[in-house]
Amino acid sequence: MSDVTQLLEAASRGDGRAAADLLPLVYDELRKLAAVRLAAERPGQTLQATALVHEAYLRLVGQTPDRPWNGRGHFFGAAAEAMRRILVETARRKGRHKRGGGRTRVDLDDQAAAGEPGDDLLALDAALAGLAAADPQAAELVKLRYFAGLTGAQAAEALGVAPRTADFIWAYAKAWLLRTIEGDRPQ
Length: 187
Prior knowledge:
2 domains
């Protein structure tokens, strides 16, 4: 059993020291995950990878220290989900009119930015919510693969399905999300 798994088990039993010891061991992986998530965002994103990691970690370990973790994959899947929710909340907050959401960002060379930051993320979040209602397992696989950055085999293991089954679910989920997102866009 790895150190991370042991610390996750101890933290789930309410050991505050284990939760503190866990962060240095998972920080680099969480930072990479956050950097990948932020790189996919549109220009104008003000959230930094470090802030995203810390906020997600606080949501995972700080609020419910007695939360049971079923290993490393479960923890990183939950971390990816927390990061996704933080980014969606940030995009929604930026989109509100009272916070200037109706304004268009203009670069110094007077060219308008290509759309509002977070538009794609909000469309993906809405489509993912629809997929979760239609097929919860497919939505969970998308979260593990896309947001947590797990490989197909790792996601299959986390879901408890065969890798080949996970590949079929992945293909279905991608097609479902693409059809939903493309159907929402004006032609």
